[in-house]
What does this fold into?
Amino acid sequence: MVRESYAYLLEDVDVRRWYENVARGSRVTADVYLRRLGSACRSLNLKPKDLLGMSEKDLGMLLADFVSRLEREGKAGSYIKSCVKAIKSWLSFNMVEVKVKIKIKDADDTPTLRDERVPTQQELRKILMCGDLRARCACALLAHSGLRIETLGNYEGTDGLRIKDFPEMKIENGEVIFEKVPTIVVVRRELSKGGHQYFTFLSEEGCEYLKDYLESRLKEGEKLVPNSPILTPKVAPKPFIRSTNIGDMIRAAIRRAGFKWRPYVLRAYFDTQLMLAESKGLVLRDYRQFWMGHKGDIENRYTTNKCKLPESVIEDMREAYKRCQEYLQTTMSQTGKESLIEEFRKQLLLIAGFSPEEVGQIDVAGLSDEKFQELVRRRLLGNRSGDCGVQKVVGLNELEKYLESGWEYVATLPNQKVVVKQASF
It folds into this structure.
């Protein structure tokens, strides 16, 4: 939004015409250029139109001196470059060309970002816990879905992510239900930086945060319909929250967690963690690029087919994303816990003396802790009929001796030892 200190510039019809022309491409860029032009003119004690009456040589010298002054003031090269671009944009719109090449030292240097790194999973957990339900939801959409802040709510607060952009989410009787998890998040063309529609996924942990936030709004009496915004301002006349305010909200959570990172670092976290998953062979590079909203082969196919992909491809993407969740989430998914417990129980049964065939016939996941413990205890200690032998853990170098003595092999342990038992007669 235009700051009051530079809003007076728009009273000039030519400046307003230039501003609106730039805004048709990007309102954010238009506001930045207006601030840069206003700041430069104030520093040079000139009006924007004064620049138009100068000769090409005078303009070149003016810009060169202006750059030198900013460098002496210690301004970052990226800031100086932005100022020069704004001035040249104003001149170019008025058909005034500056041919002289202005050199800017470290034009692409961003000192404030030089030492920035992405958070670890533990640090992300801390950030999530330092935000309220709304901030937690916003952070998860950036860190677990790779969304840009402007996708959650645009610069002017007129559009943003909506309920309908979660096609696998439904609301029934005051409860938010996800038909599939990880769930699809559609980024409409209007919310995409690249100007094309694409989709990504939200993790199991992220779905829980979104569910908690939306249900809190339902409890307050809000009626959620397909066009309802996912994130809303606490007190504002507009239904959608502006990207600037979303950034402030996320930044506040990051600061409370004790870090000085920018909100955008959460999207970088998504990219970095998926890159690690890619190195482990868990996800294709094309999938990662598509979820980030970058153009590529899959995006081209998706756009050509009128925003549709074969169901088999979508489900393959979902499975790939599910495999990557361990790199994204700060908590272990319930599915992951259950699988881990089930596998651990199977290994215990094998060590206890059950054969793989016997283990396959047992409903390991369905047994209560008490019944499972009793099952293992009976096999290890032997039942009343005495048909189970005594077991012993021995080293690999002793295995041959025990086998020759009539003992039977049971299982191999992770510490290079094996379990043997006395043969039953």
User: Anything to note?
Assistant: The CA atoms of residues 290 and 298 lie 7 Å apart.
